[in-house]
Design brief:
The chain is mostly beta strands and 248 residues long. α2 links the parallel β7 and β8. The chain has two domains: 130 residues, no CATH class; 98 residues, no CATH class.
């Protein structure tokens, strides 16, 4: 593969693709047209700063994409971005006439963004099938979480946030819309001062793990009571190394 962008051709049977420690790569290849790709891992591509429209389809096909019945990445279920230390932007795809392409990643269930400290922009996608989301080592991960949750995300069952410097709260929309959220983990988020799990539809929440949030002062969880707003299914609650916690 060239160090510059290129379309992966004649790989229609490809199910899993991993690009690891290809440090000379400056652009990711075009992959969105692969009909059977289910697992994609991009790790250690340290010279990639932008994931742009060509990631979904080649420029020659973008205009046709707007009229296509098949969205980009039609079968992708797992997408991992890891150790992309210079990656700053993962942006939307538009057709040549400026129309936004609807519903890439219709089957994506697992999205992991880890050790991408400079990433500040994520595309405005719906992610209608997303069940597990992990954000770890992203300084503006709180903004990314806000963006993901602003697009009708309602399928989430597992959320893990670690070393997210700007996380000050959990988006209300995430808590209200994801009634099947089962596991919640928040680790080493230094800006988080208050966490409230009240008045939300969290009947499925079974495990909460909070650790090393050094400025967390208040944790409020309604256990029992009205089933419509309590975390009545909670089985395990762990709070560790939160030295400033004074209200529980």
């Amino acid at each position: 593969m060239n160090a510059t962008v290129g379309e992966v051709n004649r790989l229609d049977k490809l199910v899993e693709l991993k690009l690891i420690d290809c440090e000379r790569c400056v652009e990711v290849p075009t992959l969105g047209h692969l009909p059977m790709l289910k697992i994609l891992k991009l790790k250690g591509l340290r010279n990639v700063r932008l994931i742009g429209p060509w990631f979904y389809y080649p420029p020659s096909g973008i205009n046709e994409l707007g009229r296509s019945d098949r969205p980009p990445f039609p079968s992708l279920e797992r997408f991992i971005l890891k150790d992309m230390t210079n990656l700053a932007y993962w942006i939307d795809i538009f057709t040549n006439n400026g129309s936004k392409v609807v519903n890439p990643f219709p089957r994506l269930e697992f999205l992991k963004i880890r050790n991408c400290p400079n990433m500040s922009i994520i595309p405005d996608h719906d992610f209608p099938s997303l069940k597990k989301l992990e954000i770890d080592g992203v300084e503006t991960g709180g903004q990314l979480l806000d963006k993901i949750c602003s697009n009708n995300l309602s399928s989430l069952t597992d959320l893990s946030l670690e070393d997210v410097s700007d996380l000050t709260y959990l988006p209300e929309r995430l808590l209200y819309d994801n009634r099947h959220l089962t596991y919640l983990r928040i680790i080493a988020c230094p800006s988080l001062t208050h966490l409230e799990l009240l008045r939300h539809n969290l009947q499925s929440l079974e495990q909460i793990y909070i650790s090393s949030c050094n400025k967390l002062k208040s944790l409020r969880i309604l256990i029992g009571g009205d089933d419509d707003v309590s975390v009545s299914s909670l089985r395990e609650l762990t709070v560790a190394s939160c030295q400033e916690l004074t209200y529980f």
